[in-house]
Specification:
Shape: globular
Distance between the termini: 36 Å
Oligomer: single chain
Strand content: 5-15%
Order of helices and strands: HHHHHEE
Number of helices: 5
Structural class: mainly alpha
Number of strands: 2
Length: about 130
């Protein structure tokens, strides 16, 4: 699709979305685009690599796409927030919790060599009268 035909290419798109967000000083449009790409990265990894990689299934303790997504949900603490932003951006949002985002950098030594050292932080404040979801 549009020249993006692998999870590696999609990862590159996600990094470009993040760079756009950073360059545009926290633009909501760029933040949403980045979160959409980040959330869908798991789908691209599954479709491109994992759906027939049974050795990795065994190593991760998964058996299908749903159990892989559950594994991602458990192992990546920000996945639920990424999912909420990705899904919430598709709907009218006048009564959703206010959010604030900021590009930031991880302290040196916090991540292993080879990992991206930038991250997107999203702060969510619960709106008055809304109950937290379980």
């Amino acid at each position: 699709m549009f020249g993006i035909n692998s999870s590696v290419a999609f990862y590159g798109k996600m990094l470009e979305d993040y760079d756009d967000f950073v360059e545009q000083s926290g633009s909501p449009r760029h933040a949403i685009n980045c979160m959409l790409s980040a959330y869908h990265m798991a789908e691209w990894i599954w479709g491109d690599r994992l759906q027939t990689d049974y050795a990795t299934w065994k190593a991760l303790g998964i058996r299908d796409r749903e159990s892989f997504l559950a594994w991602v949900d458990k192992s990546q603490i920000w996945f639920k927030i990424t999912q909420a932003v990705a899904n919430g951006s598709k709907h009218f949002a006048s009564k959703l919790a206010k959010t604030k985002s900021s590009p930031s950098y991880v302290e040196d030594g916090y991540v292993e060599d080879g990992y991206q050292k930038r991250l997107l932080e999203v702060e969510v404040k619960r709106a008055v009268g809304l109950k937290p979801s379980s």
